[in-house]
């Protein structure tokens, strides 16, 4: 059955974004959290605890994502998540960042098949009753690596394999290779989820028609237009008023929770990098937003923007 998922995006789709998006627009059957990264201290950071907190995610179907290359850290973190009521845990095999891959984590594991095997053996031996999903790229530097990686992954009872069909060295450049996903769908019995460059309702419909038995995960397209999955499930596109309310509520949560203007503005700038695509003619606004040295200047720029704004669709 085709389902739509919200992708994990560090700094963008954290619990505050999920709260507001889910309440206002919904449409996602699951929301994978930006990764948490357990280590030898066997304790989560405050930000990670918030990300996993049932209260902050109340009513939202959340799948915590874990980034590690050590089975004992994953198993500890998964049990912590289970004790908070989360039934499924996702393993990150896709993060391309040099600081992550340099430690053989995320996509770094894709060039270390033996380490990956040990990690998966340890995870699936210790957690036979938990639903474990995996989100992966198709290789380190060449798509030709994918058949061997898939053969390895297939030996485990992965409850859903999300495939982002780029290799690590591409980061987010070039096009996601939908042919590789098609090949994967023809060659594996694992439940699949497609992820990459799905940004319009037309894309969503096309994916739904081509892969009716799989799921589709949307990242940047959903941050750009938080109503995208509502539209995929037959609902209307967001109105200008809804987008303004979405912005104001999220901004209000950042202002409430962060101390000082700097972290608030940092988060809002990240959001606008994508959210601006919902509107026409955003150059002046984006300049003003980037220039705003404090929240007052930011609020003035955004008020003016919404006064003049026109939707891009
Ligand atoms: C700023 C940013 C943060 C991301 N954080 C994560 C993350 O924490 N975990 C993860 O698995 N993928 C992460 N990703 C990758 C996205 O989940 C997704 O795979 C990627 O954006 C491609 O999908 P899209 O074209 O629908 O955006 C991140 C991507 C970006 C651009």
TrEMBL record:
Source organism superkingdom: Bacteria
Alphabetical keyword list: Flavoprotein, FMN, NADP, Nucleotide-binding, Oxidoreductase, tRNA processing
InterPro entries in the record: Aldolase_TIM, DUS-like_FMN-bd, DUS_fam, tRNA_hU_synthase_CS
One Pfam assignment: Dus
Binding-site positions, FMN: 65, 135, 164, 219-220
MF terms in GO: flavin adenine dinucleotide binding; RNA binding; tRNA dihydrouridine synthase activity
Entry-linked PROSITE patterns: UPF0034
Cofactor names: FMN
DUS-like FMN-binding domain residues: 6-289
Entry EC number(s): 1.3.1.-
Catalytic-site annotation from UniProt: 95
Family statement: Belongs to the dus family.
Task of the protein: Catalyzes the synthesis of 5,6-dihydrouridine (D), a modified base found in the D-loop of most tRNAs, via the reduction of the C5-C6 double bond in target uridines.
Protein name (Swiss-Prot/TrEMBL): tRNA-dihydrouridine synthase
């Amino acid at each position: 059955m085709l389902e739509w998922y919200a992708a994990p995006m560090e700094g963008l789709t954290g619990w505050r974004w999920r709260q507001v998006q889910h309440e206002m627009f919904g449409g996602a059957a699951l929301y994978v959290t930006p990764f948490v990264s357990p280590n030898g201290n066997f304790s989560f950071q405050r930000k990670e605890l918030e990300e996993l907190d049932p209260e902050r995610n109340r009513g939202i179907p959340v799948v915590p994502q874990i980034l590690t290359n050590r089975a004992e850290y994953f198993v500890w973190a998964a049990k912590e998540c289970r004790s908070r009521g989360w039934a499924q845990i996702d393993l990150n095999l896709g993060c391309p960042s040099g600081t992550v891959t340099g430690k053989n984590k995320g996509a770094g594991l894709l060039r270390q098949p033996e380490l990956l095997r040990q990690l998966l053996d340890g995870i699936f031996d210790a957690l036979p009753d938990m639903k474990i999903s995996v989100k992966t790229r198709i290789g380190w530097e060449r798509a030709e690596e994918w058949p061997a990686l898939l053969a390895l992954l297939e030996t485990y009872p992965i409850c859903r394999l999300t495939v982002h069909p780029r290799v690590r060295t591409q980061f987010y450049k070039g096009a996601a290779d939908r042919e590789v996903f098609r090949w994967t769908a023809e060659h594996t019995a694992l439940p699949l989820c497609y992820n990459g460059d799905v940004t319009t309702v037309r894309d969503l419909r096309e994916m739904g028609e081509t892969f009716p038995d799989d799921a589709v995960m949307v990242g940047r397209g959903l941050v750009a237009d938080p109503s995208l999955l509502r539209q995929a499930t037959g609902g209307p596109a967001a109105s200008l008023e809804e987008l303004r309310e979405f912005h104001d509520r999220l901004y209000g949560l950042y202002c409430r929770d962060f101390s000082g203007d700097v972290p608030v503005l940092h988060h809002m700038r990240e959001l606008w990098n994508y959210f601006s695509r919902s509107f026409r003619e955003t150059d002046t606004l984006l300049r003003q937003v980037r220039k705003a040295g404090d929240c007052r200047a930011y609020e003035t720029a955004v008020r003016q923007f919404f006064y003049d704004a026109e939707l891009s669709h």
